[in-house]
Every structure is written in structure tokens, then in C-alpha cells.
Design brief:
The protein has about 450 residues and is of the alpha/beta class. The chain has three domains: about 200 residues, 2-enoyl-CoA Hydratase, Chain A, domain 1 (Alpha-Beta Complex); about 130 residues, no CATH class; about 60 residues, OB fold (Dihydrolipoamide Acetyltransferase, E2P), CATH 2.40.50.140. It is about 50% helix and about 15% strand. It has 14 helices and 16 strands. The strands form four sheets. A six-stranded parallel beta sheet has the order 8-5-3-2-1-11. β12 and β13 form a beta hairpin. The chain is elongated. The N and C termini lie far apart (about 130 Å).
Length: about 450
């Protein structure tokens, strides 16, 4: 039986048609899934987290994201950084969804300001938000200045919560009275828009909803089955974010200072000096980005001066002790953040300050003593040494001192085998005393 033959042209036609259909369907399938860019704020709000969020929002806008999802868990932070983040959210061309998650997380203090600025504010069950009363970097201010700061923060919050259509009075209570809200309370008071157990559930729940953007335009959210694309920290942001922890910054500052001193104490090693310089520069760069108390630097400098003076004017440890106390106080008050997470812990300040004071005092005192000790090489090092006459000194002869034979001269006759003591040096000749009554037997 003969099979029917199919022409080559027809085969090529079907092959080309199949390829065209596949190429046409593939982009359509890809385009059917909206892209939601994911950012994480699991940190304090400071210049590095500000840089990460603003960069991520700009990047998502450039890629024409369907929405931007920011998962937040923060105790708060600096108001200046908060203002910059809020400004980026309000100017975003893509809708910004801020989601307090996972369970047990919070959007406290400055985090509340950021949550209220979102196109969609959401919380997971078991989270909380609020407690947003402004604190002036751990300092005590007058009543009038405190009222100015409070009114400024309230005006900033009202400027966008009213535009977002949220409960301005309840939002102000979180600032005036430091009220905190559970997800149910926040939803009832219209401070947030939705409660969702997970990011996927949140996006599916928001799909098809119409929101009003900050500029007044209306937009329908397309988030069902979205492709979630995370935007991660850069290497620089990751390193600097660690350094934004004041305790870590103070630790590497102290260790770097000790390594630099070790380089001066043992010159030529190179590695301790280079590593210490790098650590000190990184620490100073990080601390400079945080709210710093200038007076604390004076305490730290004064502490180092007192520790050095202890080596020159022995005070039975009084100067070193006072210096160490000043160092601990200086480190403790060096960073004046508005929340405890942006200040130096007492344990860190005490441990690093006491360790630095003890180690520096010991090393400086050892170096000072070594510099003022008499020379231990050459003929002058023999003065005061005790030797044994190898022959009669009348007045010259050989003696054995420290395992070496020297030519010696005595003003009085010294019999062989007698002990002598070196009293001086003339050239390569030792001047000795032969009075055996003053010498060991």
C-alpha cells in the first residue's frame, strides 16, 4: 500500500505557521501576568533604608510596574528620612501598596507616617501601628519648641492623609497621644484599607478595585496572579545598613582605633594599621549619617588624653579611671536617635569603653617604660653588672661578665676569683670595684 505524499512546501508552511503561533502566544502569556515589584523595610528608618526605598520605587516606575508592594516592619526612625520616603511614594506613577507584615510586626512612629502615605494601606493579623509622637533625637527641648515640632509633624501628616481620604482625626491621635492601633481598629477607623493574611491574598483581594491616586486620578488595580519581582539591596546598601546600627558602628570604631595604635606600637606590620584605618573610616562615615551629639566627641577626646596622662603622671589609676568613665559616657551619648534602636546601648558603651581604656593604658605604659629604660646593648649596658675576676687585677686584667670576657681595670688590687662590680666604661675597658664586702659571695 502506498502512502500519500505530502509536498515539501506544505510541510514548511505548517512549520512556519506553528512557529508564528507560538511566538505570538508567548508574549501574550507573559503580558497577561501583571508585574508587582516587592520592597522590604525590616529596619529602622534612616538614610540607607531611605536610599533603598526611593531607588526601588524609581526602578519599579521605570519598568512600568502594575503596582509596588512594600512590606514593612519598623520601630520608626528619623523624620527627615521619612519625609523623603513619603515624597517618593506620593510621586510614584505606579500605585504603592504598603503592607505591615508578618504577624508580630509593627509600623510604629515614623513607620505610621509611611503607612498612611500609601495608595493602599494594609496590615496582616497580629500587627500594630501608631505611637508616632515625634521625639527630638533623645534631647530635652522647651515647651514652645516641642509644640512647634509636634505641629509641624501633624501638618505633614494631614497634608496627605486628607488627600488620601483617611481619618485625619484618628491619624492625629497617633501623633498627639501616641495611640497605637490593631489591624481591626485601624480598619474600623479607616486608617488602613484592608487586612490580609499574606501578600498573595492581599494582591488577589485588591484586584479590580478602583483607587484614587494622590493627584486625583482614578485607577483600577490589576494584581490577580501577579508576578512578584523583588528588588534587593545593593552591596553598598547592605554594608551601610549594617553600619547604621550605632552599636556596631561604635564597636568597629573602637577596634579600628586599637589596631591603629598597635601599628604605631609595632611599626612595620602594615596589616593592623591598614585594617584599623578602614574600620575607623567606615565607622565615622556611618556615624556621620546619624544624629550625632558633638559634645560626646569632646568627652571621647578628653578620655583619651587622661588615659595617656596616666602613663606620664602615675596617679594610681585615678586618671585612667576617670578617662575610662568619660569614654563610656561619650560613647553612650554619641548617637542621639529618636528611638532606642538608633542609640548606643549601655552594655555596648560600657564593654567597649572599659576594654579600650584598659588595653590602651597597658600598652601606653609599656611603651613609655620601654622608651625610658636604659640601653641593654653595648658597653654602657654593663654598668652595675657583677662579674668574676679571671686573673688578678693589678690594676688590669680579664673578668667574666654575663658570659663574656672583658678587659677590666680596678683602682685597687683584686685577686683572681673575686667578685667585682662594673662602675663605669672607658672605651672597651670596664672600670670595676673590687670591694668584695659589697658584692654577693
Amino acid at each position: 500500500m502506498k502512502l500519500p505524499q505530502v509536498s515539501t512546501n506544505r510541510l514548511w508552511f505548517f512549520f512556519a505557521l506553528s512557529c508564528a503561533i507560538l511566538l505570538a502566544l508567548t508574549p501574550a502569556a507573559r503580558a497577561s501576568a501583571p508585574q508587582v515589584y516587592l520592597l522590604h523595610l525590616d529596619d529602622t528608618i534612616q538614610p540607607v533604608s531611605q536610599e533603598y526605598l526611593t531607588r526601588g520605587i524609581n526602578e519599579a516606575n521605570q519598568r512600568h510596574a502594575a503596582a509596588i508592594l512594600i512590606e514593612i516592619n519598623t520601630p520608626g526612625g528619623l523624620l527627615d528620612s521619612t519625609r523623603t520616603i513619603v515624597s517618593s511614594i506620593l510621586k510614584s506613577t505606579a500605585p504603592v501598596i504598603i503592607y505591615v507584615t508578618p504577624t508580630g510586626s509593627r509600623a510604629a512612629s515614623a513607620g505610621f507616617f509611611i503607612l498612611e502615605s500609601a495608595d493602599v494601606a494594609a496590615m496582616a493579623p497580629g500587627t500594630n501601628t501608631g505611637a508616632a509622637h515625634p521625639v527630638v533625637e533623645g534631647a530635652t527641648v522647651g515647651k514652645i519648641m516641642g509644640q512647634k515640632i509636634l505641629n509641624d509633624a501633624l501638618a505633614f501628616l494631614r497634608s496627605y492623609t486628607a488627600q488620601r481620604g483617611r481619618n485625619v482625626q484618628a491619624a492625629e491621635e497617633a501623633v498627639r497621644q501616641s495611640h497605637s492601633y490593631t489591624p481591626q481598629e485601624a480598619l474600623k477607623l479607616h486608617l488602613i484599607d484592608v487586612i490580609a493574611p499574606s501578600a498573595t491574598a492581599l494582591l488577589n483581594q485588591l484586584n479590580g478595585q478602583t483607587i484614587t491616586r494622590f493627584n486625583g486620578s482614578r485607577q483600577v488595580l490589576d494584581t490577580a496572579g501577579a508576578q512578584i519581582i523583588p528588588i534587593n539591596h545593593t552591596l553598598r546598601e547592605g554594608i551601610m545598613d549594617r553600619l547604621m546600627n550605632p552599636n556596631f558602628a561604635v564597636l568597629i570604631l573602637i577596634v579600628g582605633g586599637l589596631l591603629i595604635y598597635l601599628e604605631f606600637h609595632i611599626p612595620g606590620t602594615i596589616v593592623p594599621g591598614a585594617l584599623g584605618t578602614l574600620m575607623v573610616v567606615l565607622a565615622l562615615f556611618a556615624i556621620n549619617m546619624l544624629p550625632v551629639n558633638a559634645t560626646s566627641w569632646l568627652l571621647i577626646v578628653g578620655a583619651v588624653v587622661l588615659i595617656i596622662l596616666e602613663t606620664q603622671f602615675p596617679s594610681h589609676g585615678i586618671l585612667a579611671g576617670i578617662g575610662t568613665i568619660l569614654l563610656v559616657l561619650g560613647l553612650l551619648t554619641l548617637v542621639n536617635g529618636p528611638i532606642p534602636q538608633l542609640r548606643v546601648d549601655l552594655a555596648t558603651a560600657a564593654a567597649t569603653g572599659i576594654a579600650f581604656g584598659l588595653i590602651t593604658t597597658i600598652l601606653v605604659r609599656a611603651a613609655w617604660k620601654a622608651r625610658h629604660n636604659k640601653s641593654l646593648t653595648g658597653p654602657n649596658a654593663m654598668i652595675g653588672a657583677v662579674g668574676i675576676a679571671q686573673e688578678s687585677l693589678a690594676p688590669r686584667g680579664q673578668i667574666l661578665v654575663r658570659g663574656e670576657l672583658w678587659l677590666a681595670e680596678s683602682t685597687q688590687p683584686v685577686p683572681a676569683g673575686a667578685h667585682v662590680k662594673v662602675a663605669g666604661v672607658r672605651g672597651l675597658t670596664l672600670l670595676v670595684k673590687g670591694d668584695s664586702t659589697d658584692l654577693p659571695p
